[in-house]
Amino acid sequence: MTQRGMSRSDLLALPAAVDLVTAGRALSLGRSKAYELAQSGEFPVRLLRVGTAYRVPTADLLELLGIRNGDGAAPLANSPASTPNAA
Fold first, then answer.
1. pTM (two decimals)
2. What is the 3-state secondary structure (H, E, C) of 8-57?
3. Among residues 53, 64, 71, 77, which one has the least CA distance to residue 5?
4. Nearest to residue 75, comparing CAs of 87, 63, 57?
5. pLDDT at position 69, please?
6. Are 54 and 38 in contact (CB under 8 A)?
């Protein structure tokens, strides 16, 4: 089965963190390669461990891919715009 990447709109619609398979799909990596890179410490973005699962911060993934949101700014995990109750 051929692994397809994700469109810009698909990427911008992702939640704050995604599973390793989704992050791999965004990078056009198959499941096995994504896990291989994660386990060797070579996955190209920061990984979070939640129990035995890997989670990938979407902001880090978008930054790696050079994807910017509609106003031209790259979404950053710690920016006020990404905080739901920011004034």
1. 0.74
2. HHHHHCCCCEEEHHHHHHHCCCCHHHHHHHHHCCCCCCCCEEECCEEEEE
3. 64
4. 63
5. 67
6. yes
